[in-house]
Structures are given as C-alpha cells and as structure tokens.
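Q: For a teaching handout, I want to show students what a protein-ligand complex looks like in token form. Below are the inputs, and the small molecule is arginine. Please produce the holo structure.
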Amino acid sequence: METVKDMLSAWMRAGFESALAGTDADVSRVAVVPSAQPQFGDYQCNDALALGKALKQPPRALAQKALDACAPNESLERMEIAGPGFVNLTLKSDWLARQAQAMGADERLGLPDVGRGRTVILDYSSPNVAKPMHIGHIRSTVIGHALNRIHASLGYRVVADNHLGDWGTQFGILLAGYRRFLDAAALERHPVEELERVYVKSYELTRTDESWLAHCRQELVKLQAGDPESRAQWNRFIELSLGEFNRIYKRLGVTFDLFRGESHYNDSLKDTVALLEAKGLVRESEGALVAFLEEEKLPPCIVRKSDGAFNYATTDIATALARFEEFDPVRIVYVTDERQQLHFRQIFSIVHRLTGRGDTLEHVWFGLMRLPEGTFSTRQGNVIRLDALLDEAERRALDMVRQSSPGMPEAQQRAVARAVGIGAVKYADLSQNPQTTVTFSWDKALALDGNSGPYLQYAYARIASVLDKYAEQFPGQDWRGVPIAFNEPVERALGLALCRFPEAAARAAELFRPSVLADYLYDLAQTYSSFYQNVPFLKAEPGVRESRIGICALVAKTLRKGLAMLGIETPDRI
Ligand code: ARG
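A: Here is the structure, written as tokens, with arginine included.
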C-alpha cells in the first residue's frame, strides 16, 4: 500500500510541476508533512515558500497556482492556503475510514514495500572475543535488532552480520596469559569473565616484564603463522565467548544471519592494501602505510603498521569491499557507540575513493547510557553483567504482574514478567534519541504512565481484553462485518494516527532511528487512551459499537506489529 503521505506528496508535486512547467524550478522534493498545527489540517506542504523565493514569485500566489493545477483528489475535504504560503490539507473522514479499513485488511498492515529487491546489511552487536559485552554492545544489539525488524517489515532483504572482534594483538597476550594464569574452575563458571581476568593479568605483566612482553609477541606470531596448537586454542576462546554471547542473544530474542568475525577477512587484507597502493590512495610514512584524508578534513588513517601488521581499519575496508561484492547492498549500516565516529568517517572516505559507493555506508551511533550506581554490579566504567540487569528487570516486572493479575497461574506470571522486564529494558534504549547520553532509571523504564515498554504492553493487553469482552457479551455477533467509521473527533484523531503507522515505520528506516517508531507508538497509545475515556464502545448503539470494536482491533494490531518491529513482545494478558 502507498502511505497517505506519499499519495498526497505525489499529488501535490504533480500540481507544482504543471504550474511551473517551462521554468527551471526543481519540484522533485515537493512533499507534504504532518501538520504542525492539527487544528488547521492533517498534512501541510511548505514548498511554495522556497520555490517562490527561487522564482521571485509571491509564495501564496504560487501555492494557489499549484492548487489550481492539481488533479481532483477524492481523499480531500479541504485545501487552504495559510500564512506566508503554506498549503493545509484536510482529509475526508470517510476516506480516512476506508484507508484504515484497507490497512487492517492488508497482511502488511499498510507498510509500504519500499525495500523490495533491495538488500541492507546491518552490522550490530559485534562484541570482542574474550571480553564481556559492555553497555555499548548491548545498545548496539538492541538498536541493531530493531533496525533489522523494521527493515524486514518494509520488504528489505536484511543480512544481519555480527562482526565479532576475533582477531588482533590481544590474542598474543591472551594465549600467553591463558597458560600461566588460568583458573579452570572459574572458566567453567564464567568463561568470558575468566578469560578477561587472564587477559588483564597478562597485559599488566607486559608493562613491567620485558621478557613476558616478548613472549606474548611470540605467541601472536605463532597464531598468525597458523601454528595448529595456537589456532586450536584461539578457536576455543571464540567458542567459549560465543557460547556466552549466544545465551544473551537468546534471552534478548536477538538474531543474526552471519557471524563473520574480523578473522574472516584475514586472507584479503594483503590484497586490499595492494589495491589501495595501486590506486595511489596510501603513502608510506614513518614505516607505516597511511591514507591521507586532507580533502575530507580527516586525520590520516593507518592501514598497515610499521611492523607490517594490519589493523581494525584495514579489516573494515576489506569487509566493506567483500560485502559489496557478495551482497550488492543498497546500504551497509554499522551500529556502534559514539566513540567510533572518526573510525567510520575515515573508513567511509577510503571506501568511497576506492569504489565511489561511500554513500551506501551509514554509521548509526549512539551515546553511552549511564547506569545508576549500585543498582547492579558495575565494574570498570560501563562494563556490566547484563544478566544482572535483566534478572532485576524480570524481578521488578514480576512484582508488577503479581499486583495486576493476582489470580494468574505462577508460570504464566513468570512468562509475562519476562516479556515485560526485557521489553522495558529494550524500550528504554530504543525510545531515546540515540545521540544523547541518558541515564537509565528503573522508575522510568517500568513506569505504567509514561513513555515506557510496559505502558505500551499494558495498552495492548487492555485492548485485547475489550475484544474478549465483546465476544462474551455479544455471542454469535461479529464486529468484522461492520465497516469502521470515524464520527466523533476523538475517533477521527485516532483514525488519522492509525493511518500514520506506515509513514512512521518508513521514516524510522529512513533515519535509522527506532525511536521514531517508538514515539509514534506512544502517541498512538495516548490517542487511544483519550478515545477509550471519551466514547462508550461496548455500551454504544449497535453498529457504532461494532465500528468502535473494529477500531480497537486495529489499534491492537498496530501496537503489536509496531512493538514486534522494536523486538518487543506483547502478551495478551498482563
Ligand atoms: N568489535 C568492535 C567493538 O567492540 C565493534 C565492531 C563494529 N563493526 C565494525 N564493522 N567495525 O568496538
């Protein structure tokens, strides 16, 4: 289905096009946006202002000319020119009702198929082997997975790739430390933590003990040369880490299509650097091979160190080239914390110089989320035990569920608490503008009256129960046979909100911002709540009653689908 916004934008654009035929005005960007002031209309078009300026024509007159040139549009009740030249558009309520009805009947719930035939690669989570996931990886995991679901719902072919940090100098230090410091029992209990402990101990020793440092280097050389025993040990590190990472992914309900770590590209690093040399994109400097990026106003980027070793940058260049080759994506999206902005700007510039496809690359970064002190064990800045965080979320959610549904069987209470607790943690991440630093707060994450996961899950469950009540009170009757109508202003407002779901989803994908969808869902739930409080539905007269139940069902469906796109479950009862 086409979104209302796209339909109106195309219509408006055609009007400007014929009104301005023969001029050199560029109308390709003419579009409508949701009204800033709903009392004046549902959508507005602001383009007459800029076009008027460019053409030295009064914007109001230009807007009028465009409206006169527009084809008749059966969806519109009113078109008005306001202020300096805005065009305000108001939809007919019965057209809106038919649109909502069609959306409900559509198996894609009106979501446009904009991704058809297009591949998007999403690089998210990507933790480092033998190190615990830190809060940055967790945000990357949750945001990346939401982007995955959003794009898939819009018809994109998604390739979710976990670019594990499974190569690099740390493995020499780890291999040496493993033999010397390992506590086998601790490895059994918490493998990744034990590996990290061993790594830290070994690393510390390299700083005071020259011979230990030399030994670590030796271990790295052996690994890189393919020594079978070192390789086997390295494989074991990956296996142990993946075991723990996978447990976390399972708990979060997060999935990937590929787990191609950095090591996957080892064999192509030489060729990648040779290509950079052949194209004259790198120069030798103090023994290292460096890409100078003055034109882009970026600092130089080393692609081969003076000791001949390749680095993180080399791997990411090789990875991008390999992904272009294998998947021909329209986008490669990297989700990491803000500290990698410079790295990706450099990589994108170099890849652009190599392929001309830099526009395809997108870094989605987010600020680090601060955790409240003392809520769960924090170590070393923002490294946390995710399990402790999720355990606490489930515990708190269980208290809520026990209060709201004391009669529910214990096992079900626990299942619901799982969905609510994990949903709350995810939503707290997803609903924020990712590019701000926020402090996580339990009160906010679990609030039943604010912009939270549980608020939306409760809203969904309450609507589900309205549908059950209808079935109980009117056995044998079916609301589905009666078309939706928007008669009251609150109904119409809700109808408009419903019809904006596909736009919100498309916008979230366009901006790579799940928070756009989260904001939309919160707005929808609030609009529903004023509908719920202001008009009767089970007690409404027959016909009106069925229409309202139909509206409820569509709101429920939209909340469920929207939350699923954020990776959040919607239990029917809470
Ligand atoms: N392993 C990196 C880290 O933990 C993140 C990798 C992000 N993806 C990439 N292609 N560089 O910081």
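A: Two things your students might notice: The pocket of arginine is lined by residues 123, 126-128, 163, 165, 316, 319, 334, 336 (CB under 6 Å). The first strand starts at residue 33 and ends at 34.
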